[in-house]
Write a structure and sequence with these properties.
Structural class: mainly alpha
Largest sheet: none
Distance between the termini: 36 Å
Number of strands: 0
Shape: globular
Number of helices: 9
Order of helices and strands: HHHHHHHHH
Radius of gyration: 20 Å
């Protein structure tokens, strides 16, 4: 799959650069464009999963590819003082997601409406049917309520929350990704958590959606 003229064929990265930092790979790609395939092999899966959770699998295929095309085109502007390119790539992907704000909001509202309270299913030995039904209903309700709560978040707060929760970035990485101060990340994340808790209740807040741990690595 050729993503851009001069980039080469991705995936299928070079195998002898595993010890190189992302920054080193980007720098080498200035003179050897095919080196950028190493970055693709390292991070394409994570970027695809992040975009898929926000916009769906179909959109993720295109936006993941576009993320790396944009990154390749902007590689000479990469800050080589940053050894890891994940925040940079997630920032590009998030900027692309911003062009689809309405799509994301509609998708979240649709997910909120679509979760059914189906009470069927096969029994499992040693597990009463009513317990399985209650567990299924509880999970579906939590998913439905969470999707609706995410749809109501301001876009800038949702970006911060989902970069931390779904992208796995720490506060400093999220700040670099969005080009904002760490203090702004803290503030937006605090407000997003508060709004989610107000929507779904503290006891229903899913740990993956309402991150509590602060990881500051720089």
């Amino acid at each position: 799959m050729t993503l851009s003229p001069g980039v080469g064929t991705w995936p299928g990265a070079l195998d002898d650069h595993e010890s190189d930092t992302d920054a080193s790979v980007v720098e080498k790609s200035w003179e050897t464009p095919d080196m950028f395939a190493v970055l693709f092999d390292r991070h394409a899966g994570d970027i695809h999963r992040y975009v898929a959770r926000r916009l769906g699998v179909d959109a993720a295929d295109d936006l993941m590819a576009e993320t790396f095309v944009v990154a390749f085109q902007q590689r000479r502007r990469y800050d080589l003082a940053q050894p890891q390119a994940r925040p940079w790539l997630y920032g590009i992907a998030t900027n692309l997601v911003r062009r689809h704000r309405r799509v994301e909001a509609r998708r979240l509202r649709a997910l909120s409406r679509a979760a059914s309270l189906a009470a069927g299913g096969e029994n499992t030995e040693g597990e009463p049917m009513e317990d399985r039904v209650a567990e299924k209903v509880s999970a579906e309700r939590a998913s439905r309520v969470l999707a609706g709560a995410l749809a109501r978040l301001p876009a800038r707060h949702r970006d911060v929350l989902l970069l931390v929760a779904w992208g796995g970035l720490d506060y400093a990485e999220t700040a670099r990704s969005l080009g904002i101060p760490v203090g702004t990340v803290r503030s937006r994340l605090h407000r997003a958590r508060a709004q989610l808790r107000g929507s779904i209740g503290t006891q229903d807040a899913h740990p993956a959606a309402v991150p509590h741990k602060e990881h500051d690595h720089g």
